[in-house]
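Example protein
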Amino acid sequence: MRRTLLLLAALAIPIVAELTYQKPSREVLDILNAPAPPVLAVNPSRTYATLSEIERYPPINEVAAPMLRLAGLRIDPRTNGLHLAPASLSITLVKLSDGSKIPLSLPPHARVGNLRWSLDGKQLAFANTTASGIDLWLGDPATGNTRRVEGIKLNTVLGDPIEWLPDNRTLLARTVPAGRAAAPAESAVPSGPKVQESDGHAGPLPTYEDMLQSPHDEDLFEYYATSQLARVDATGSVTPIGSPGLLDQVTVSPEGKDILIARLHRPFSYLHPADEFPQEVEVWNTSGSLVYKVASLSLPARVPLGGVQTGPRQIRWMANQPATIFWVEALDGGNPKEKTPHRDRMLAIQAPFKGDPVEIFKTEERFAGIQFGSNFALVEDLHRVTRLLRTFEIDPSKPNSEGKLIWSRNQQDRYKDPGRPVEQRQGFRGFGRSADSVLLQSGDTILLTGPGASPEGDRPFLDRFNIATGKTERLFHCPEDKYETVEAVLDDRGSRFITRRESLSEPPNFYLHTGAAEIALTDLKDPAPQLRRIKKELVTYKRADGVPLSMELYLPPDYKPGTRLPAVVWAYPREFNDAATAGQVTGSSKRFTIMSGYSELFFLLDGYAVLENVAMPVVGTIDVVNNTYVEQIVADAKAAIDKAAEMGVIDPNRVGVGGHSYGAFMTANLLAHCNLFRAGIAESGAYNRTLTPFGFQSERRALWEAQDTYLRMSPFMFADKIKAPILLVHGEADDNSGTFPVQSERMYEAIRGNGGTVRLVFLPNEAHGYRAKETIEHLLWEKFAWFDKYVKHAEHTE
């Protein structure tokens, strides 16, 4: 027997085992299960706020529930909704006039989607998921009473199923067609071979997950995604509108007389997700009759890397007009490398949709977004290479008039971010609700909120900005000793707003600011007082080549000064055009420390120092920045370790590194190309870039244009150099583009085959991010065990 074991060891036979779910220590579990702060939202009329308890860690039996992976969607066949859709378990209404609270009456075992409010704020509706379907409920906010609408089931596969009409009495709902037959069964005998064919024209695509695979998949997608549009009045009466179809977009015009409909149709694609399938974009009236055909959109084809499809895109209502549709079209053939004076143009057509669309504005660079004021619009364009983001004020009523430049900055320059214009969510004045919001505006002034980034950290703000004069007035600025963000603005002048405030010692709470007074909307207590003994510091330093960097340094509870601790470096690389923006500080050291999920901060409870949000910039021109990726991340990592060692808080000989997704890719590369780390943890990564041949992250070149870079950046190609132990973790049902589970499987085999120390943990039923309570507990156990063995006690191992 002993001889057999020795032989197995000599042959490096891998150990394969299936564990039961393990748990970390009781101290970790207590913090993991501490209550989370509620999520706040404000209704359109600004009369109520809602405080929602969100489901944090569903049990593994929910995560493992039946799931159909079709056309980039994950469908729960039992409910005809999305698998593991976010849900609220309880909701409290807060009356903003006096701060009084009203519990919203929810059904037993509630799993509630977003609340949808009538424009006057006097009614609300929501979807509630049960074991056998999704019900529609109506509610009265004045009393908190709710009731279920009988006789229908909602279909949420292609989006939010509920929208109120401006009459405040009627809503539109996407429902499961009445009398629908059973789901199509798969034939045991194939009808023929599976064939794909290309016509010889280039068509690079991302490596999408969950695409259709067969004719049976097509049938299943059509079956579950087909919905019947219906009108539901406040009494619960239901009236079908039009015929059932694959209704991908359903938005009501601001005046409420027309509906913008996007209907998907065959032929479907096995390479593209559902939102890129061929579609007919039409305007219907509220009886379901066709009013106007906007566009027939084909499957995207011959779209170059970093480009866009030709023809209409981003079709929507203009939020400041009664019934005007606008869209964007490329003027450069969708090719970002084409030299042209203008890349995009915006067109519009208004009801009754007669005549030709009117061109209202052209952008020199790629259209990047639009927001509507009462009598103007703010249009953004973005330069692909320089990342120059510009905002122009235009008057849509004066086609092709010159736009007025309002802001211009590097998209990544956080210090010069003027803030984002505040919108009225869901629309609640003028012509009523639109699918798109309008700006909060008073005369020539709008409101701006932003993170307030600075070399000292983030200090969020609320500003009043005059579009005509360009002058800014600061209405609110986060105090220096706290972290306070503006969560909602309640009037056009910015005199009433809600903030979320926290500090190193104060848990997050919400406050209503009225100008004359400040009203606490919540009184949440510290869920884990022991974490207040953690020390946190924002640290700045420089890379060897002078690039400024920063990180958040955490020290465990009751740390004794002068003690050198084992350390965890956790990071995520990002690309920048220049050193100045790369070195800007992110985050705030004034935030209340909360641990949740499988956060690396839990290592603090195991006696480690944690170097969190470690800057890992890769600096260079966007088209070639990755040519020096490896050298730069090694320099970034060395600078962080050297700084923490210089401060006397870490033992530089006992440092582990980890990251998720692109951070996992970074981790494997660091272990392959330097000896700074004792071990690594890589979650849901991609390690062989030849398997993502048409670009990844910010890489704009295809494999065949930059073979050396793709190979040099692939830690898989250097698996023989990875001698530090590495823990590979991957969700078996990863849904992220490029991070197929096979990436970790092949990386494990490569490291093992070359004599490296490696452990592969596949998490059943988990996607790119992990959800189940049992999964999270087990992953924390795995991470502690790995670093305790190979980092904390590294002096005892070779």
User: Anything to note?
Assistant: The chain has ten helices and 47 strands.
